[in-house]
Amino acid sequence: MKKAIIGKKVGMTQIFNDNGKVIPVTVIEAGPCIVVQKKTVEKEGYASVQLGFQDIKERKLTKPESGHLKKAEVSLKKHLKEFRLDDSDSLNVGDELKADVFAEGDRVDVTGISRGKGYAGVIKRWNARRTPSSHGGGPVHRHAGSMGSGTDPGRIFKGKIGAGHMGVEQVTVMNLDVVKVDPALNLIAVKGAVPGPKGGIVYLRNTVKND
């Protein structure tokens, strides 16, 4: 069954299991999410629902955004995301999804925006090698080195690694175990690290990996 929810990364901590083993976990505030739009096979050609997360003031939304939410007659939401769920037909606009859509033992894929690391060189950004440190290497030990040949083709091919802005990219970490779910506080603890800083928005889906 396809399940999904929008959440906010709270931070990392650790949990002891029944055997006394320490499990590093990331705590995610998952939901509550409101269904703000429903798409059907008859009208759009596929079935899905759009979820909204986190309340926001109307003055912080554009007119199209606020109009879209007012049409659905739901509270204004800051983050919207569309998901294709198996039970999309059973959900209606205004329905609420909470953290208990997932349970302990489930496995999820978590998508988020990675931390920004600013302008980085090729060693940090692409794991390139240094040049030799001795025998007159000069002040270029961490430079990229030769970028291509001279006469033919006489240019640098697209995709060549180089220095540049690092991070702030969509990253998905797959097949993480759900260690604990707290429906009262809408918290989900997943084993391991997930992309992004504290307070970053993440999307949880049941994993596409086979158990």
Task: Please give a quick description of this structure.
9% of the residues lie in helices and 39% in strands. The protein has 211 residues and is mainly β.
Overall structural class, as computed from helix and strand content, comes to mainly beta
User: By CATH's scheme, which homologous superfamily of the largest domain applies?
Assistant: Translation factors
Put simply, the count of helices is 3
Q: Which CATH architecture of the largest domain would you pick?
A: Beta Barrel
How many strands, which pairing sense, and closed or not: the largest β-sheet? 6 strands, antiparallel, barrel
- Annotation, overall tally of beta strands: 12
- How would you write the strand order of the largest sheet? 1-2-11-10-7-12
Beta strand %? 35-45%
Number of domains: 2
CATH level 1 name of the largest domain: Mainly Beta
The first-to-last residue Cα distance is 14 Å
- Can you tell me the overall shape? extended
Helix content range: under 10%
CATH fold naming of the largest domain: Elongation Factor Tu (Ef-tu), domain 3
Low-confidence runs: none
**Roughly how many Å is the radius of gyration?**
23 Å
